[in-house]
Design goal:
Layout: E1 3-14, E2 17-28, E3 32-37, H1 43-51, E4 57-63, E5 66-67, H2 73-77, E6 80-83, H3 87-90, H4 97-107, H5 114-123, H6 140-152, E7 158-162, H7 170-187, E8 190-194, H8 198-204, E9 207-212, E10 215-221, H9 223-227, H10 233-244, H11 247-262
Parallel strand pairs: 3-8, 3-9, 6-7, 7-8
Antiparallel strand pairs: 1-2, 1-4, 4-5, 9-10
This protein binds adenosine-5'-triphosphate.
Adenosine-5'-triphosphate is lined by residues 14, 19, 37, 39-45.
Length: 264
């Protein structure tokens, strides 16, 4: 399988400090890969470099074999879109759902037909009556559906998901996880997910990479989470501490609910 996303020897800096150091990994087409690691380890910075929000980077970033340069933000956006943690902050408060969904098309000079907006609303399970509402007239889960819909408008192959469920009420998290599973399957999407929740990784991903202080410590299949066996001592420690913190127990109901709904 060829790589949808290939990152090689990536360094990203803020000011004079490299916060991502020599990171290399690939995500195959249709695969879902998680970046995990303690707070400040550089997970979100990697996503930000990929979409062009962190501009001081060196190394290789390729989508579907095409290398990213600092000047091709627009072309790159057609293939790769990001969904942020907090849909309330990421949606423009004075834009209706309809205007929000049309905006990426407008930016890319694509004439925005009603049919596309309606198709994407249906795809994310958002009733058409919400189309002319503003973000404050939607629930948290509905807002995150809008954010996902916006990311899909340009029909990208790769979605970067930065803690896509952690700002949501627990009861809504399972719904959004189910939606992400379904969209990946229906649209053949590739996911790169940042999360602190190992149960979410188990549910949504095929493989994971463990970051510490900006460096990739280990890459493993999600079976390592089921078996609890990692080659790297830090990865093992992170896994053990997530159990100690009750991560598994706390998240178990949401993942069980999500699993049930998907019949997995
Ligand atoms: N805009 C910025 N300017 C300067 N430093 C930044 C900026 N954004 C992040 N950093 C620093 O870069 C490092 C990596 O941050 P990053 O947000 O990528 O970590 P993370 O692993 O995603 O953390 P978390 O899990 O808490 O979201 C941190 O030390 C952070 O303080």
């Amino acid at each position: 399988m060829s790589a949808a996303l290939h990152i090689e020897n990536l360094f990203v800096r803020y000011g004079r400090t490299d916060v991502v150091k020599d990171v290399t990994f690939s995500v195959a087409k249709g695969e879902s890969f998680a970046l995990v690691g303690e707070s400040g380890s550089g997970k979100s910075t990697i996503l930000r470099a990929i979409v062009g929000m962190a501009t001081d980077w060196r190394g290789t970033i390729e989508i579907d074999g095409a290398a990213r340069t600092s000047s091709d933000k627009l072309a790159f956006a057609r293939h790769c879109q990001m969904v942020f943690q907090d849909p309330y902050a990421s949606l423009h408060p004075r834009r209706t759902v309809d205007a929000t969904l049309r905006e990426p098309l407008k930016i890319h000079g694509i004439s925005a037909g009603d049919a596309k907006v309606v198709e994407i609303l249906d795809a994310v399970g958002l009733d058409r009556r919400f189309r002319f509402r503003f973000p404050h007239q939607l629930s948290g889960g509905q807002r995150q559906r809008v954010a996902i819909a916006r990311a899909l408008m340009l029909e990208p192959q790769v979605l970067l998901l930065d803690e896509p469920t952690s700002a949501l009420d627990v009861s809504v998290q399972a719904e959004i996880l189910n939606l992400l599973v379904r969209l990946r399957k229906d649209r053949g999407l590739t996911y790169l997910l940042v999360t602190h929740s190992l149960p979410v990784v188990s549910f949504l991903c095929d493989r994971l990479g463990v970051l510490r202080h900006g460096r990739m410590m280990e890459q493993a299949g999600v079976d390592a989470l089921q078996n609890g066996v990692f080659a790297n001592a830090y990865a093992q420690e992170l896994y053990a501490s997530s159990l100690g913190a009750g991560d598994r127990d706390r998240q178990a109901p949401l993942v069980a609910a999500a699993s049930e709904e998907n019949g997995v």
